[in-house]
């Protein structure tokens, strides 16, 4: 059974930082590209960042480029999202996604709230 378990969310003040983690199990992690998505209340789910199966390439949504960094540790079956200079518009539920061809797995999400 595939499981993606996110952690690291919480409440942070504007300008602060958080690091999200997503631990994967039940799949061959090195065969999957990994992505972080987020969904704010009343908005569609949007792609935040993605990283290739090898970790050699990554991409970011325009709203987070330069502030967020995605990385992965294939030895630990874990993908990370380092979020810096957070602002209230980053408030959302953040979801981890594993993708290979037409196969997608999702985590349950972790809440990130940016507020003073």
Describe the structure.
The chain is an all-beta fold and about 120 residues long. The chain has no helices and 11 strands. The chain has strands at about 5, 10, 20-25, 35-40, 45-50, 60, 70-75, 80-85, 90-100, 105, 110-115.
Helix-strand blueprint:
Blueprint: E1 3-7, E2 10-12, E3 18-25, E4 33-39, E5 46-51, E6 58-60, E7 68-73, E8 78-83, E9 92-100, E10 103-106, E11 110-114
Parallel strand pairs: 2-11
Antiparallel strand pairs: 1-3, 3-8, 4-5, 4-9, 5-6, 7-8, 9-10, 9-11
Using the alpha-carbon principal axes, give the shape: globular
Roughly how many Å apart are the termini?
40 Å
Number of strands: 11
Number of helices: 0
Helix content: under 10%
Structural class: mainly beta
Q: Average the pLDDT over all residues and give the rounded result.
A: 97
Gyration radius over CA: 13 Å
How would a textbook summarize the main sheet?
A: 7 strands, mixed
Low-confidence stretches at least 5 residues in length (pLDDT < 50)? none
**Portion in beta strands:** over 45%
- Helices and strands, in order, run as EEEEEEEEEEE
